[in-house]
Amino acid sequence: MLPIQVLLVEDNPADARLTREVLADSKVALDVREARDGEEAIEALRGAGGTSGVRLPDIILLDLNLPRMDGREVLAEIKGHAEWKSIPVVVLTSSKAEKDIVKSYQLHANCYITKPIDLTQMQEIVQNMKDFWFTVVRLPTENADAR
């Protein structure tokens, strides 16, 4: 079985490192790619699929507050693209603003998680997210007709 492809879109190196570390401590085979800003995330998606040999991600972990192209714009582009729209997007951000939560769901985010400030709580949240999305949820396969 192929590893689950994860695209982590995060500009904060400490948050990215922590998320990668918690994800790496998993019984599920994961291949985590990273994008540091919104434009890099879209480039990664455009470069995947077809004959590139790089699979589209099975799930995207997306921060909202990104340089160059923010997470809301990235989310809108993903969910507006015929080939990408079925990829689950988990918004993982520090924003607790109701307008960001509402906007993310209007743009068809699959869930919205607010990052805590405390390191231990952050580890716990990423662990819970990992358990849910990589153990409980069935993700679409790359060969699915929906993509």
Structure report:
This protein is α/β, with parallel strands linked by helices and 147 residues long. It has one domain: Response regulator (Rossmann fold, 3-Layer(aba) Sandwich). Helices cover 39% and strands 17% of the residues. It is built from 5 helices and 5 strands. It has helices at residues 13-24, 38-46, 71-79, 98-106, 119-136, and strands spanning 4-9, 30-35, 59-62, 89-93, 111-114. Strands 2-1-3-4-5 form a 5-stranded parallel sheet, sandwiched between helices. Helix 2 (38-46) packs parallel to helix 3 (71-79). The longest helix has 18 residues, at 119-136. The two termini are 19 Å apart. Mean pLDDT is 89; it is low at 143-147.
